[in-house]
């Protein structure tokens, strides 16, 4: 059996205000071609199908089209909910969807019940663990403690405790199945040893969000979700990462998916397949005039661009000027080469012996890196007089 491991689609996410639905549909829809080319039997999505608990109608329709293309290409689908998803919304109509080959695993009470598949070597059990928010999951697990492998009481709190309980139930179910049953587990968690990026929402509870990889011992392959960079923690324990970059910290990542092969003995091989990049991410640093004129920056004109300006004086409307050459510039910082703008300000020293006019002038100088002009001082004086008049009228 061949499994395509994906996660963290985040359908509906924007990138610094830019709509990504078109890019997402292009990349995710392309998974259908990969299903055909690589003869994939089942595609798994290990959490964060959507970017929001209540996705927009456009995001839902995009997701429906992508899932339909993959199913039409011949693969079964197994999807779990992540920390960005609403489990109830993702899991709606799960029983009906399963009849069409879309298996939604979003209920804590049923995490020990696998999607049962088969190949020429026999059965394959695919278990989907939805994202387990520790306290609600703990209560839900204790409410259904009559299943094999369940603990009467989950003593400690946190992600490790609930995931350990979940895996105990999965291992107990697996032990009761025919000898030779292969197993795949989907889980959405931060496993110790993984590298995070800036685009993941923290799942820390009480300052602790990581769980040890040993929690997942005893199964053939664990398809992890949550971290957005593809990575291998062990041969059977991997993150596929997100299909698109969702922060500039991911600019160097090569987005990909894992092709997982199971034979009669379990995990046989794992291969990486890189995904297309609709628009590259890049960074640039320098003075505004140089960035706008230097020919060597031409290669950045079609990139999503994060710019750090080093001008001593903050330029006027820098983003508008940058976007005339770099239409996909989306992020801007001003860091003068001297570092003067980032020097710590000592409030008591700044205000001592200064009137409102002097303080307003200093504020402009600190924000922009240059003193206000005569016309700007006149405007500041007019604003201060208006405030004084309003205060006097009270």
TrEMBL record:
The keyword DNA-binding does not apply. Heterodimer of SbcC and SbcD. GO terms for molecular function: 3'-5' exonuclease activity; endonuclease activity. Residues 278-365 form the Nuclease SbcCD subunit D C-terminal domain. This is Nuclease SbcCD subunit D. Residues 1-229 form the Calcineurin-like phosphoesterase domain. Belongs to the SbcD family. Signal peptide: none annotated. One of its GO terms (biological process) is DNA replication. Keywords: DNA recombination, DNA replication, Endonuclease, Exonuclease, Hydrolase, Nuclease. NCBIfam families: sbcd (TIGR00619). The keyword NAD does not apply. Pfam families: Metallophos, SbcD_C. SbcCD cleaves DNA hairpin structures. These structures can inhibit DNA replication and are intermediates in certain DNA recombination reactions. The complex acts as a 3'->5' double strand exonuclease that can open hairpins. It also has a 5' single-strand endonuclease activity. CDD domains: MPP_Mre11_N (cd00840). It comes from the Bacteria.
